Please model this.
Amino acid sequence: MISDLNKLGYAYQDLSATSVFEELKSTLNTVSVSSVAAFVGLSIIIIFTMGKFIAESRREIGIFRAVGATKMDIQKLFVVQALLYTFIGYVVGLVGGIVSNLALAGVIKAGFDSFVAKTIGESFGVVNPVSTGVFSTINWEAVAIYSAVLLAITVLTSIFPAANASRMSPVEAIRGE
Model:
């Protein structure tokens, strides 16, 4: 009866075939966890990069402090440097992501259509076609949110190494090289 109603244009579902939606939910959960892991990984990379850069710049920090740079000047220097490096990586990643998104929209649509036809189409018999534009559209609101999160992560993770760098005494920093 459900298949007859669906042939008439209705979108009734046989709730006994919900395993398709469980599989889809699992896939979306995996993508979500992967995104969070990527941001945590990014934070760790920023911290280690800043720590390494500070360790290699001990002599310069000592010279800056010896000629009158304050602790706040040293902190600003390293935070701004972290922001600059992150911005360069952000721009390269954003442009690369947009270009690859636009280039691969057709391939992704074909894979999506195949997935939908094999899962939802076979289970429910009603599937609306999806245009390529769905996969090539950029969600600028999400880009803005991720950009703000990236900015916050960069500032927060660069403050700790910068604070450590600013606490070095000039003599100790120059001599320790």
Notes: Residues 18-175 form one domain. The CA atoms of residues 145 and 152 lie 11 Å apart. The longest helix spans residues 71-124.
